Amino acid sequence: MSKKYNVAIVGASGAVGREFLRLLHQRDFPIASLRLFGSERSAGKKIIFRDSEIEIELLKEGDDFKDIDIAFTSAGAGVSKKFADTITRHGAVMIDNSSAFRMDEDVPLVVPEVNGEDAKHRPRGIIGNPNCTTIQMLVAVNPIYKISPILKIRVSTYQSASGAGASAMAELEKQISQYASGSPLTVEKFPHQLLLNLIPQVDIFLDNDYTKEEMKMYNETRKILHDDRIEVSATCVRVPVLRAHSEAIWVETESPVDISDVRRAMESAEGVVLADNPAEALYPMPFAAAGSDPVFVGRLRKDIASPTGITLWTVGDQIRKGAALNAVQIAEYLIRQKNI
Amino acid sequence: MSKKYNVAIVGASGAVGREFLRLLHQRDFPIASLRLFGSERSAGKKIIFRDSEIEIELLKEGDDFKDIDIAFTSAGAGVSKKFADTITRHGAVMIDNSSAFRMDEDVPLVVPEVNGEDAKHRPRGIIGNPNCTTIQMLVAVNPIYKISPILKIRVSTYQSASGAGASAMAELEKQISQYASGSPLTVEKFPHQLLLNLIPQVDIFLDNDYTKEEMKMYNETRKILHDDRIEVSATCVRVPVLRAHSEAIWVETESPVDISDVRRAMESAEGVVLADNPAEALYPMPFAAAGSDPVFVGRLRKDIASPTGITLWTVGDQIRKGAALNAVQIAEYLIRQKNI
Fold first, then answer.
1. Which one of A246, B23, B261, B317 counts the least CB within 10 Å of its CB?
2. Catalytic residue positions of A, numbered
3. Does A283 contact chain B (CB < 8 Å)?
4. Is the pTM of this model over 0.90?
5. What is the ipTM of this complex?
């Protein structure tokens, strides 16, 4: 009988936390025991998993993680920083969905299809799960990168409400009801109304007038690809969509690449579904991609502004591949590699 | 007393046609007489303009345009082609919002802030009004172009429902009501549901896997700027927004340009409003720009992927500057230049 693992989810009641539960079930993750942790607000609530009811325990300092093998954490950077020692002290592998440790040198940052092997070297017992927009972009462009190194990426995002959590999704749905009934719209989760609008700001602004979200795409890409030559200029925009992110991407490669080679590479690439048939109006859309696992790629064509350019459109479920699924896949990779 | 003009609007009952009426009134256009034309479906309907009621006349071959000085046409490329001779035969200047003649060598294609003087040379009496996405992009990047020629543009669009007409806007609003009441959504005006979705296709696909809309941005830009070096790679996406288009733009200039020089140029550029203050979460948004005249520019910064690159975000009302306003401004330019 193959090995089973004691698993913990920290932030179990959030949008990503709930997705962890669905994924562990759907993917038949080898669970020996499952414990759920949360803040004072969610502690005591009960969640059904398979045939049993599990109570969310209060996350606190102490020895609660003594027997845990794998902890999936998604409760914000502050919580991850505060409890990293508590979680990892007795040997649990912490796969962290927050931005707390992503750029730390002694924490690998992993997209399994791109740099799975990095997960094996984790001196602090922590593995970083990259930002959703980075994961999706790298899964989509990695097949090109394998043909020729990519030197530049320009990317504009069309990010769904889910990136700001379950309550942000609920607010967008509420705005629909309010708009339909002619009531004033509730605007709390975003700086501005999202329904029938676009907000060209995700996360806070930095000194170079890029947002933190945009610079994550720059910095995380270089770390994951181990490539300090690649430069990423991103414009991140929130759009009135519930849970799948889309990205329009231009890459410039070191050597010219043939578009038919890229197409072939996409067709066989792990984690990618090529949905690209202009003749039949087939291309990825967030409405269709919500709730599914792959990174969908379409609108694949030469960049007519550059002899070494390729442009494409990608859509992926932000809560799945953009967060929970990628973290679970990191754990599955370690299990396959007998590294845990 | 300054000269007044006999004006005609063809396609008076459409979204752009109605905007012509509002603009002619608001801008106090020097009208001697105003006649409205439409298809059999709208002929006979009456429209209030200032203090009088004007009946929409059936557009037909004949001498109806004998005394017209300026005809604003916005009834689709088929109608423009069929009736161009009827409209211009007796000397009327036809300012055409359709794509019918835009790329014809003997038809100038004009954005007044960029190439107003081209409007003076119109051997066929026709002046083309560019596509909405091109107008907005060129007003936004022209201040940069004046500092150094632009060699490359990558642009992704976030196009509102209005680009597909008044009935498409109505369908998006209907989808909101239907979603709120749990009813199935009506999907007729676009190939897919637009509410809570994105459709990465505007207009039909061409042989190079770009859409016609995307290639308009390439071809019209070169024509308007009289520059065959500039190359534009566009990804055009329909978003669930009512009437303002947004664009994320990356330009590469021939010589490096200083971002503070660009900022100063934007501040004084005709037709541009710079709305760019990250510290106060100030940037252009379609919700705020709907119904107003300028092209709003924000998120202005260095392209960190290129030493000669600038990136920016622009929002403009598609029915105004993207269509009716630009056409009226062409006429106003000719009047100021005493060229009509």
1. B261
2. 132, 245
3. yes
4. yes
5. 0.96
